[in-house]
What we know:
Blueprint: E1 3-6, E2 9-12, E3 14-17, H1 34-46, E4 51-53, H2 62-70, E5 80-85, H3 93-104, E6 109-117, H4 122-127, H5 130-139, E7 143-150, H6 154-161, E8 168-172, H7 175-180, H8 183-192, E9 197-200, H9 213-222, H10 228-237, E10 242-247, H11 252-261, H12 270-287, H13 307-320, H14 345-349, H15 356-369
Parallel strand pairs: 3-4, 3-10, 4-5, 5-6, 6-7, 7-8, 8-9, 9-10
Antiparallel strand pairs: 1-2
Amino acid sequence: MNYKSFQDISLSGLGMGNMRLPVQGDKAGAPIDRVRAQEIIDYAMENGINYYDTAYVYHGGESEKFLGEAMKKYPRESYHLATKYLVFVNPDYRAVFEEQLARLQTDYIDFYLLHGINDEHCQSYLNNGCIEYLLEQKKAGRIRYLGFSAHASVDTLTRAADHHQWDFAQIQLNYYDWKYGNAAKEYKVLEERNIPIMVMEPVRGGRLANLSSEAVQMLKEAHPDWSMASWALRWVKRLPQVQVILSGMSNMEQIRDNVKTFQEPEGLTDADAELLMKACEAFKNQICVPCTACRYCCDDCPKKINIPACLEIYNGYKTDGPWVLGRLNSIDSEGKPSDCIGCGACAGHCPQSIRIPEIMSELAGLSEKK
């Protein structure tokens, strides 16, 4: 296992995320399969993982309780617990903190985070007194290190980072968001302030473990034995400001592959990294439609569908997953994909030759399944 120094301790490069533990069945809200989840935790401990991340809301509040039970067999000093306070779930940060200590069956939390700072809730965190209270708990020894996680604009991330000298921060960081999102700018904000980074979504919720056929072929020709997930993890390992890379491992196959990746001291070579970015471009081009939002398709649509907005959501679905489809209900559009009659007037005007009626039909079907 790779380790990096953090203040006065040493942390494993790979951290165990406890948001996607195995569950009993496949229904939403299904209870944690504690036998299989314990096997994953035990394998993690046996292979040197010493950072365990959870939150007040994960698995409906059961993640913290499970982790408290699962870690009882190990000496408390042999691992580090990270958990989070989410302001809009329960604004009573004092009560939440005490409940978390009880759930985790511990008298201190190693890494405590303000959870999911974003543009909407950032000011609530900064104003409601929680930071001052948590700093008091740090002085009392009930929190060892205080940080925050963020899904925010660069400006909001900067505002949060400048509040005081945080011990660490957690952001979504992967090669796709580096190339096509704001990850590089977010990384720079934290790097300039010398804030160590805990990485979430290094494989983008599993999406980068399932690339397009062209991208997979490019990467397999270079390293036949590497999984697509390991390419993503190796890329993040290259970044010097990164402290711990979290992975929400749901089965033994995933954790074995990830542990193998973190048994190697290096990440990617420069040539590997260049190839990965070419594969990333091929992946995006193969799964996404090249809509430029010119709106030539809209004027003659008899159902007045905001086609570019629908295509943007379609691309989001392809890269981020089904949760993006919920945005279809909030776009400014008189017609919906299900209203499309397949007349083809839109496709006839499209400079990019996008098969718009087919995509509208696919979006309509996907919306019905949700």
